[in-house]
Amino acid sequence: MAGSKVTPTPLLKDELDIVIPTIRNLDFLEMWRPFFEQYHLIIVQDGDPSKVIKVPEGFDYELYNRNDINRILGPKASCISFKDSACRCFGYMVSKKKYVYTIDDDCFVAKDPSGKEINALQQHIKNLLSPSTPFFYNTLYDPYREGADFVRGYPFSLREGVPTAVSHGLWLNIPDYDAPTQLVKPRERNTRYVDAVLTIPKGTLFPMCGMNLAFDRELIGPAMYFGLMGDGQPIGRYDDMWAGWCTKVICDHLGLGVKTGLPYIWHSKASNPFVNLKKEYKGIFWQEELIPFFQSATLPKECTTVQKCYVELSKQVREKLGKVDDYFNKLADAMVTWIEAWDELNPSGGKSAAELVNGPKK
């Protein structure tokens, strides 16, 4: 029975890195100390590299600023965004761990309806270590959870599920709205705690928010490129969206799962809707062409690794979206540069999804 045995969630403290993009002192880590102190942090400092970022005592961390990114990647550093939280994906690239959790520095510990503090990281680990069910929807949500199972009518041949590549968490308090919605609903707060985790079905896209996100770096890492945003680019605030659309198309192709729902964090402050509108303006129009592009994107069966899938997707971006705006030709180039840089820093990569899940062929 899927939900009959309860085992404690492993901490994975030697197998997981926490990646934090920031431009400020990381006082917010004090609140997370009980949950994060055992883990290694990768801090990606955006903006002025001469500014000193203070990290509370007792945390094990490495910090990279723009000078470090330029030194490590050389000319390939052009694929990493500047003056935008999209720079976080550099942390994914330099991590040497199997799993990554990324969180924004304005995200605090949330409480569940009983008032208990939520260990977001533990729930993400639970999500990643249990299978996903993208091929057939279970109406009782996550069938592997304690007290749940597959409902009547669920095919037995699909009950093993597939490996989970992505765990997408949510937020209480300030919702992750676009600028027009922020302007219309400036006082709206999310107070609804929904105690559920769902697998996003195959063939369905979703808006992936990068502020409370975990993934299996070995299974899907090279697809988690947050694009070209911020300084010198015509668009911002679509970094995590881009990564989510690319990742979902590749997960669907490789037979991997994406979950959304628990855990919640407390999103403490709303960003300026007028600044956001300036960043999002072009994206709001472009997404009407981007979504149909991703919905119809197919990858050939020769694409057996995330890297091959991603490079193939970059070709399709150039071919189909290049005519929307020249920005997408630049982005297609950057996607290839990202994969080249990833493979330089992670030379053992490029394994097929089957090899990663089942081990090398005997």
Automatic annotation (TrEMBL):
The identity of this protein, by name, is UDP-arabinopyranose mutase
The annotated site for Required for activity falls at: R152, R159
Alphabetical keyword list: Cell wall biogenesis/degradation, Glycoprotein, Golgi apparatus
Highest taxon, organism lineage:
Eukaryota
Main EC class of this protein?
Answer: isomerase
Principal location class: Golgi
GO terms classed as biological process: cell wall organization; plant-type cell wall organization or biogenesis; UDP-L-arabinose metabolic process
Name the chemical reaction catalysed here.
UDP-beta-L-arabinofuranose = UDP-beta-L-arabinopyranose
Q: What does this protein do?
A: Probable UDP-L-arabinose mutase involved in the biosynthesis of cell wall non-cellulosic polysaccharides.
Give the signal peptide, or none: none
Q: Which organism is it from?
A: Rhamnella rubrinervis
Q: Which InterPro entries match?
A: RGP, RGP_fam
Subcellular location(s): the record lists: Golgi apparatus
Sequence similarity: Belongs to the RGP family.
Annotated PANTHER family:
ALPHA-1,4-GLUCAN-PROTEIN SYNTHASE, UDP-ARABINOSE MUTASE
Q: Per the UniProt annotation, where are the glycans attached?
A: R152
Give a GO molecular function annotation for the protein: UDP-arabinopyranose mutase activity
